Amino acid sequence: MKLKYGVVGTGALGGFYGGKLAKAGHDVHFLLRSDFEHVKEQGLKVDSVDGDFLLQPVACYSSAQDMPVCDVVLVCMKTTGNHLLPELLKPIIHEQSLVILVQNGLGIEERLAQEVPHASVAGGIAFICAHKVGPGHVNHLDLGRLILGLHTSTGNKLLQQCQQDFEQAGVPAQLAENLGYIRWQKLVWNVPFNGLAVVLNTTTDQLMKQKETRELAHEMMHEVIFGAKNCGYDLDPDFADKMIRTTEKMTPYAPSMKLDFDNRRAMEIESIYTSPVQAARQAGFEMKKVAMLESQLRFIASQIEN
C-alpha cells in the first residue's frame, strides 16, 4: 500500500524529510505559509551533504482545507505553534491516520492525543543539522537520522511502513520501543546546546572550544540524564560523553533555538525546558542548572516580546 503523506511545517525539517520522501517518488503534500507562492513557482530546494536536489513541481498548499486527506502527517513545525494543530489536522486526517510529531521536547504527544483522540500519534526524533536559508530553500549540513516511536496503542503498521519508506528514500530511520526514553535522550543534547547558544550568543563549535562552557554543557547533560532516571528512563551516563564527542565532530552549527532568537521568533522553552524540569521535579529531582537556564531564557524571551 502506498501511503499519502502530509507535511505540516515546511521549514528545515519538513523540507528535508518531506523532500527526501517526495524525491524518492512518494506521494507527499506540503502545507506552507509565507513560502507558498515561491515554492509553487520555483519548487523546493535542498542543499545537502548527501547530494543537492530540487523538487519541482511540488504538491503544496497555503491552507489545510485545500489538502487531501493523508494517511501519515509529519508535523515539523515548532512546538510553539502546537495549539493550532487540532484545527490544522482536522481536514487532512481520517480515522486511521497516523500523526508523527517530528519536534523537540517532552510531553507533546500526550497533549496531542488528548486534543485529537481519534488519530494515532507517534513521535519522531531527528538527529540532524539543518536550517532554512531562504524561501523554499533548506541547507542540510550534517547527520539526518530519524527515530520513530509510537505513543498511542494504534498505528503500528503505518509507522513500520513509514520507517521503511524513509529508508528507501535514503534517510536512516529506526523504530524505538520506548518513545519517552528517546525523547529524554534527545534532551541530553538539546537542553545545554540550544539554551547556551542563546544566552551566550554563540554556536556549538565555540561552546566546545572553551573549557568552561564545554564543562557546563557536560554537567547539564548529566543533570538531564539523572532527571530522566528519576522519571523511569534509565539513560546510560556515558551517553553524555558520546554527545560531547559527536558535537566535537559536528559542522559548526547554530541550534534551532538560536536561529529563533536571532530572528526574534518565539523559542521552544516550554517543551525543551519547562516540561522536563517539571517532570523531574514531580519525580523528586531538581535539575537546578537546567532550571536556571530556563529562567534566563524566559527573561530573554520577555525582552523580545516587549
Secondary structure: number of strands: 10
The CATH topology of the largest domain, please?
Answer: Rossmann fold
Q: So, CATH architecture of the largest domain?
A: 3-Layer(aba) Sandwich
Radius of gyration (Å): 19 Å
Secondary structure tally, helices: 12
Distance between the termini: 51 Å
Oligomer: single chain
- The residue fraction in helices comes out at 40-55%
- The figure for the number of domains is 2
Mean pLDDT over the full residue set = 97
- Taken from the alpha-carbon principal axes, the silhouette is globular
Which CATH top level class of the largest domain fits? Alpha Beta
Name the CATH homologous superfamily of the largest domain. NAD(P)-binding Rossmann-like Domain
EC number: 1.1.1.169
Domain Ketopantoate reductase N-terminal: 6-150
Domain Ketopantoate reductase C-terminal: 181-299
InterPro entries: 6-PGluconate_DH-like_C_sf, 6PGD_dom2, ApbA, KPA_reductase, KPR-Related, KPR_N, NAD(P)-bd_dom_sf
Short description:
The chain has twelve helices and ten strands.
Describe the structure.
It is an enzyme of class 1 (oxidoreductase). It comes from Sunxiuqinia elliptica. Residues 181-299 form the Ketopantoate reductase C-terminal domain. Catalyzes the NADPH-dependent reduction of ketopantoate into pantoic acid. The protein has helices spanning 12-23, 36-42, 85-89, 108-115, 156-168, 179-199, 204-209, 211-230, 239-249, 256-262, 269-282, 288-305; strands at 4-8, 27-31, 44-48, 53-55, 60-61, 70-75, 93-102, 120-134, 137-150, 173-176. With 306 residues, it is of the alpha/beta class. Strands 1, 2, 3, 4, 5, 6, 7, 8, 9 and 10 form a ten-stranded mixed beta sheet that branches. Helix 8 (211-230) packs across helix 9 (239-249), helix 8 (211-230) crosses helix 11 and helix 11 runs antiparallel to helix 12.
